Amino acid sequence: MSIEYTFKSSCYPIGERRICELDSLSSLFTSPAYTQILNALAGEGVYTADVLSLWYKQSKWDKWRKVEEEPLVSSGGNAGKIFVKVQLKPCVGQVQERLNKRIDELKEENRSLRQQFDGLSTNLKHIQRQIDEFKLSAPRLDFTPSYLQANANTTLTGDSFEKDLDVAYLYAIPLVRKGARWRRNEPIRDPIDIHKEISALEKVFVGSRKELQVTTNSGNVANLRHILSQRPKILHISCHGSYECDSGEVKPYLYLEDAKQPGMMEKFDEETIRRIFSVERDPEEEVRPRVVFISACHSQRFGEIIKETGVPNVIAVNQYTQVADESAIGFATSFYYFLLKGKSVKDAFDCAKSEERYSNMSINLCCCAHRHETDCLWSAKKDENIYEAHAMHVSSCDCKFGGNLHKSNCRWLKELPSDLFEVTLKASSNLKRVCCCSSQIPHEEEEKFILMSQNMEVASERIFDETSAGEANVIKGFVEELVPLSLIHI
């Protein structure tokens, strides 16, 4: 009776096979086998202290099984011989090699962190130099791309503008997020393409050939209060938005900038927004702003709060969904274009949706891009394996309608698991919607924007109907061009 075994370690020749004789092989199946096999290996000269684990099988076609203290389990193979795989502890040379590899990885991580720090330090030095030069305090810090400075023909005088302000554009591109307690600050890896958005909006304002007063500033609490005190016709806020769990409760937040720490992100919750917009107004004066546009993911709840404070019209993004930068820029550009052409707020909003419906056919944000209900089965599967779950709703059909729309006879749609996805018929069409939570959650980019008006009268208002012809002036900030974010390794 014998055992044929193979070493699996670089301490011994890999693949070396030996035959180890046992007095009674049948005893392995009736009494504890681990000690018997170790004794047999020791008789062959194997240093048993190096043995990490033992594996066995009775034939070449069986699966390997781990040898425990219990007797072996027979698979009905050759009763005269078993195969044993001996897994040995790594030798000192292997351990040293792994340690050296890990040290090299840590050195590379340290080098990358130093590059990130140097990039952030360069930006902060630019900001500090501007603060010293213009003798402004941090809460009044404003950011404006340098390419807008050449078009600035109107200046600030004290705390107010020379003419009535038409459009105020506040944007937030914080560099870092404050770490919790003892944790380090975290770099923000997905900044909004603010330069592209400002450039697109500037073309619309200048191309309207109307006498407009426009300002662009950094989005922080100080600038927001200051802009509201100037009573602009339109306030546009461009930033990130998301949900976070706070004390066991999931809440929406807008991510703007900290007025006291330039470059640091500050979270604005519902109460903060309500407090800022709840200002005393003269009942005889026209309510300003007439339109607030919050270009941020999941911002619907903030829009509802701003509407409750008395703002006539608010545009925001559905509370369940994210929105692509390209779509947000395109929709805002179209909305202001039609508004400046003399259309009402409602008509300009509808026209912007129609424009985006055809321009964003290639953008397809799937179920990964919206917030999920607590009982969503697909979301639970995503938590187990996000790649496998995502692949389930990546369509392989030729239904090119964008979002989650498919033909009623779509073959791919029929193969979807009915317990994970809900399929319903879209109103006034032969198309079907598919979603893991609810078919009412919009997937088409243009449907993610929501207009909330106090009544139909204010929604039918033409904001710029009486604006005279002229040139659009951009009231600017003061900072030079900062180091591009692409140079900061975050």
Topology (elements, then pairings):
Elements: E1 2-8, E2 17-21, H1 34-43, E3 51-57, E4 65-66, E5 81-88, H2 92-134, E6 156-157, E7 160-161, E8 167-171, E9 176-177, E10 186-187, H3 194-207, E11 213-218, H4 221-229, E12 234-238, E13 240-246, E14 249-257, E15 265-268, H5 270-277, E16 291-295, H6 300-308, E17 313-317, H7 325-340, H8 345-359, H9 377-384, H10 386-392, E18 405-407, H11 411-414, E19 422-425, E20 431-435, E21 449-453, H12 456-459, E22 473-475
Parallel strand pairs: 1-5, 8-11, 8-12, 11-22, 12-16, 16-17
Antiparallel strand pairs: 1-2, 3-4, 3-5, 6-7, 9-10, 13-14, 14-15, 17-21, 18-20, 19-20
Classify the beta-strand content into a percent band: 15-25%
The spatial strand order of the largest sheet comes to 21-17-16-12-8-11-22
**Helix share, percent:** 25-40%
**Poorly predicted residue ranges:** 135-159, 478-490
What gross morphology would you assign? elongated
Q: Tell me the structural class.
A: alpha/beta
Number of helical runs?
12
